[in-house]
Amino acid sequence: MxxxxxxxxxxxPSPAPVTYTPRIEHVRGNVAGKLRQPLGTILHGTxxxxxxxxxxxxxxxVSYVRNGAGGLGWHVCVGNDVVCIHMEPExxxxxxxxxxxxxxxxxxxxxxxxxPITDAQVRAFVxxxxxxxxxxxxxxxxxxxxxxxxxxxxxxxxxxxxxxxxASDRSGADELRARIRAEIxxxxx
Length: 189
What we know:
Helix content: 25-40%
Radius of gyration: 20 Å
CATH architecture: 3-Layer(aba) Sandwich
Shape: globular
Number of helices: 4
Strand order of the largest sheet: 1-5-4-7-3
Number of strands: 7
Low-confidence stretches: none
């Protein structure tokens, strides 16, 4: 009796990993100087106070930058699967008082306090943040808000200015940071 060994057909090739890229826009912002090694990335909410969608708030904020932004400057504004780059990672602008020249800075399009930061915004933010690690390979996964920096005494004033959540709502900020870290791991795969 002979044994017949059946060969399995070769497995089909694995599909190439899908790489995510948001829509990218460029509107030059107010640059104050050169940034050394950042200590982290500040999370801001744009907070115009209008009853606008994320897309409307994003467009309004980009227009604000185009018109001078009152002398303020930050690296990016992030909408739903869109990033508007305002300055290079190696630059800084005034956005968080004395901490401005120590951190990267992101404005999430968020018209009003309590409006959600969407998964599409987190995805686009992480795409940009991972590109910043090319300029700063040791960029810490530290994502403070204004109130985090205020509480540390780093800004000299406590107001939680333009935080995506109330300064007293640590759970909201912690949940956003957890979503960001999970998306970093997902996009690194």
